[in-house]
Amino acid sequence: MAAESTRREPVPDLPEVLQTESGGYAVPKMPAxxxxxxxxxTTQEVPAVRSTTRSISLTNADTDAQELVxxxxxxxxxxxxxxxxxxxxxxxxxxxxxxxxxxxHLPAGGSVTINHQNPVWIRGDNASAxxxxxxxxxxxx
Length: 141
Description:
Layout: H1 14-18, E1 50-58, E2 66-69, E3 75-82, E4 87-90, E5 104-106, E6 111-114, E7 120-124, E8 130-138
Antiparallel strand pairs: 1-8, 2-7, 3-6, 3-8, 4-5, 4-7
């Protein structure tokens, strides 16, 4: 007798559970908490609890500008490695589009670690495809 499969698709589907249009994860807005420090304070960096890696291919077409990561208060760091052609980076899509993008230029063979939680947009600087690999680390799930 053959075993029956018990695997079923989730009900409801994942974008509905996450309640986002694009199927990405929803990021809660974090309230600002005022803190007043008195005296000396010792701090210790905690390790990331989650990470993901990916490689993407980009060109210099405006339509190829991609939001690499959205705004996320859980992000510890985003490390990028540009392997073939250079890329432009910015916090806004407008910074990487148009004939003369004003975003930061990262040349081929370069790498950068970004330690803020704002969105990061990216676009290749050449008609040839740029291969970009990245490591995304998060403080929390």
